[in-house]
């Protein structure tokens, strides 16, 4: 029976050098939401008869995102590599607006928080669209899954 989704996701802890409590909370929420509801159909693996669910391990090496895809038993199916150059600016912008958002939650008015949150969602949505473009032909997925994956890509970019 076909079940094209991610059942387990792991981030390469060696890639993540530092994160604060706010970022850790973002990571936990993104991972929980991703496992609870996602669409993830890797084209080659699916066509080869591996119809899911999948285990996914994300890491960044040499400026590239590595997506190690395994079947639910942990058997490696393939490793996809995406260049991250086009993500540098959205990641930077996302971190900047998130920092403003975290500060605003502690002391700003509801209207100021809403304005910053709208900017944060806009950057997040645009980055998810970029990720969908980069995955085109490799993985069939949806916008909410791409948004959560972008959050995890950002976590992998933290350098302290």
Automatic annotation (TrEMBL):
Q: Which InterPro entries match?
A: UCP032146 (IPR008321)
Instruction: Report the sequence similarity comment from the record.
Output: Belongs to the UPF0262 family.
Pfam families (UniProt xref) = UPF0262 (PF06793)
Q: What is this protein called?
A: UPF0262 protein DI555_04155
Highest taxon of the source? Bacteria
Question: Which classification does the entry list for the species?
Answer: Bacteria, Pseudomonadati, Pseudomonadota, Alphaproteobacteria, Sphingomonadales
């Amino acid at each position: 029976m076909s079940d094209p989704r991610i059942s387990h996701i792991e981030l390469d802890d060696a890639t993540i050098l530092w994160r604060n409590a706010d970022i850790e909370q973002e990571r936990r929420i993104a991972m929980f939401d991703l496992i609870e509801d996602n669409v993830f159909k890797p084209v080659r693996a699916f066509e080869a008869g591996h119809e899911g669910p999948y285990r996914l391990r994300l890491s960044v090496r040499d400026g590239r995102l590595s997506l190690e895809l395994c079947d639910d038993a942990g058997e490696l199916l393939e490793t996809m590599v995406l260049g991250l150059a086009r993500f540098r600016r959205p990641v930077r912008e996302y971190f900047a607006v998130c920092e403003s958002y975290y500060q605003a939650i502690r002391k700003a008015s509801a209207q100021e928080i809403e304005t910053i949150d709208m900017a944060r969602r806009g950057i997040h949505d645009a980055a998810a669209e970029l990720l969908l473009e980069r995955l085109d032909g490799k993985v069939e997925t949806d916008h909410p899954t791409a948004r959560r994956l972008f959050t995890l890509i950002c976590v992998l970019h933290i350098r302290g």
